[in-house]
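Reply to dn_fold:

You asked what the input looked like. This is it:
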Amino acid sequence: MTGIAEGAEHREVMIDKVDRAMFVRYAGASGDFNPIHWNEEFAKSAGYPTVFAQGMFTAGVLATFLTNWVGEDAVRRFRTRFVGQVWPGESITCSAHVRRVYDDDGERRADCELHVINGKGEEKINGDATILVS
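and this is what came back:
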């Protein structure tokens, strides 16, 4: 990936409106059938207002954002930390901020700060990645 410099920003709305069907499809793909993600009654009995996305669903959206931006082969490290649930009806916007560009192990690399927020600006995931800069 060329043209990545310290301080560069990249941002993209990944999902305009999350819906429950996405949670069910993710459950089928991942094997995470916890009813808190698809059964309204169960989620409410556990104290939540409704069902919510699996954390790894949202992390997968962030990973897709990153690989769409730099390509799969450019990712050297990817880490996430869950900080909030994603609810049906929310949008998901991902962003990256390039903190540092440097040479390491014979490669030009960049360390990036990553975020997932909803339409209200509430953070859902934060993390970081190291990417190859060619």
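The first strand starts at residue 9 and ends at 15.
Hope that clears it up.
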